[in-house]
TrEMBL record:
Gene3D superfamilies: alpha/beta hydrolase
Name of the protein in question: Alpha/beta hydrolase
GO molecular function per UniProt: hydrolase activity
Domain of life from the UniProt record: Bacteria
Keyword Hydrolase (UniProt): yes
Domain Xaa-Pro dipeptidyl-peptidase-like: 69-148
Annotated organism of origin: Luteimonas aestuarii
Length: 222
């Protein structure tokens, strides 16, 4: 399968991946925002628990970045939606992310690359961050305590972590302890009265993301 051209407008397309075809959704910057030379890849939560690129937290993260002028790329990990293959506990999913990032960099060589992920997607993007070296990393409810975070190198790039304090799936204290243990340089946003899926808190999440990343945005295109 040949790699498709990066679309000028929003589109869903199929990309060759390491385990077969990957379903990818590209969305252009918001019409009211000044476009920036920035592509942000957003990774979705655990496929075995219903996570897809259409998850409401994933789509809100992407929307927040598009409102700042970024182009966003969401994709379904192997075995999810129209993506081929089977679930691989983070290892194969990291390879999927590598393939998507390689395509973005090949197609948009002049653009800055950011990585973002929610829950399992945060874990996968953290696994790949050292190799892919994005200019910005965004981790929403990283599942410390549920996955092996001992194998995750502490990121050195600008890094925003957002954690709900009433998360019923990821133990917030496990996240805080992991960040403290690794002497992380993350900007940590603790959201009070907030569950794992940010029920009734999505607008607050949007604000936290925009506030946390604004200083790292590349200049808008002329």
């Amino acid at each position: 399968m040949a790699s498709p051209r990066f679309p000028d407008d929003s589109a869903t397309l199929t990309l060759p991946g390491p385990a077969g075809a990957l379903e990818v959704a590209v969305d252009a910057a918001d019409a009211e925002a000044k476009p920036r030379p920035l592509v942000a890849i957003v990774c979705h939560p655990l496929p075995t628990e219903g996570g897809t690129m259409h998850n409401k937290v994933v789509t809100m993260v992407a929307r927040s970045l598009r409102e700042l002028g970024a182009t966003t790329v969401r994709f379904n990990f192997r075995g999810t939606g129209a993506s081929e293959g089977t679930f691989d506990h983070g290892r194969g999913e990291r390879d999927d992310l590598r393939a998507v990032a390689a395509w973005v960099r090949e197609q948009r060589p002049g653009d800055t690359l950011w990585l973002a992920g929610f829950s399992f997607g945060a874990y996968v993007s953290l696994l790949a961050a050292e190799e892919l070296d994005p200019a910005m990393l965004i981790s929403i409810a990283p599942p410390a305590g549920r996955w092996d975070f001992d194998v995750v190198p502490m990121p050195t790039m600008p890094w925003l972590v957002v954690q709900g304090e009433n998360d019923e799936i990821v133990d917030p204290q496990a996240v805080y302890d992991w960040l403290d243990k690794g002497d992380a340089k993350a900007e940590l946003v603790r959201m009070p009265d907030t569950s794992h899926f940010f029920h009734r808190k999505l607008i607050d999440l949007r604000g936290a993301i925009k506030h946390g990343v604004r200083q790292y945005l590349p200049a808008a295109n002329d």
